[in-house]
Amino acid sequence: MNDDRPNPGWWGRNWKWAVPSGCLTLILLAGLLLVGVIGLGIKGLSGVMKASEPYRHAIALAEGNAEVVAALGTPLRTGSMIQGTLSTENASGHADLSVPLTGPKGEARLYIKGEREADRWTYSLLEVAIEGSGQRIDLLKDEGAPAEPAPPAAQPDAELQDDPDADPEAAPADNGDLVSATATAGHGRI
């Protein structure tokens, strides 16, 4: 007996494995494209954040801080996975960032919180948290320190108490206002 059916072509013989393979290939290519787009987006965003003034300022303070260098060592490197928000509009803005730091001796996170008004940044938090130790290093304490020490406020009282002619029975003066004003003025920021 002779079979009169024509011989099937390639598609007729192979469609059962070609269709699933083709679909799987398209899914894999779409996934790779998506990963590439997301990766470029993350790299681009981290580049924008790394170019910002709050980031550059905080990194410069961290690299110049003796406690940070002692805890992490040098060279100090930043990671690419910066977390947080950075927004600027005209002369105002807001920064709330968390930057990974690494050094030969360990790892840490740099926390940055700041506001921009009239094209000038002020920071409420610049802190390095050393991982594994619980140690936190305040970078603002060096920045807000006065250039020259303030004169001691209690100096006139000390002279009165050291005065041999002063009456030992006299009631001490109430200097509550002086102490309060000195404590408030002693902080660089209120």
Which helices and strands occur, and which strands form pairs?
Blueprint: H1 10-50, H2 53-64, H3 66-72, E1 77-78, E2 83-89, E3 92-103, E4 106-117, E5 120-130, E6 136-138, H4 140-143, H5 155-162, H6 176-186
Antiparallel strand pairs: 1-3, 2-3, 3-4, 4-5, 5-6
Question: Could you please describe the fold and organization of this structure?
Answer:
This protein is α+β, with helices and mostly antiparallel strands and 190 residues long. The chain is 44% helix and 25% strand. It contains 6 helices and 6 strands. It has helices spanning 10-50, 53-64, 66-72, 140-143, 155-162, 176-186, and strands spanning 77-78, 83-89, 92-103, 106-117, 120-130, 136-138. Strand 3 (92-103) and strand 4 form a beta hairpin. The protein starts with 9 loop residues before the first helix and ends with a helix. The model is unreliable at 145-164 and 170-190 (pLDDT under 50).
Question: How do you describe this structure in short?
Answer:
This protein has six helices and six strands; from the N terminus they run H-H-H-E-E-E-E-E-E-H-H-H. The chain is an alpha+beta fold.
Q: Helix- and strand-based class?
A: alpha+beta
String of helices and strands: HHHEEEEEEHHH
Mean pLDDT: 74
Our estimate of the beta-strand percent is: 15-25%
Q: From the structure provided, what is the oligomeric state, counting identical versus distinct chains? A: single chain
Q: Please count the beta strands (DSSP E, at least 2 residues each).
A: 6
Helix content class: 40-55%
What is the terminal-to-terminal distance? 104 Å
- Tell me, briefly, the overall form: elongated
> How many helices in DSSP terms?
6
Residue runs with pLDDT of under 50 for 5 or more positions: 145-164, 170-190
- For the CA atoms, what is the radius of gyration? 33 Å
Largest sheet entry: 6 strands, antiparallel
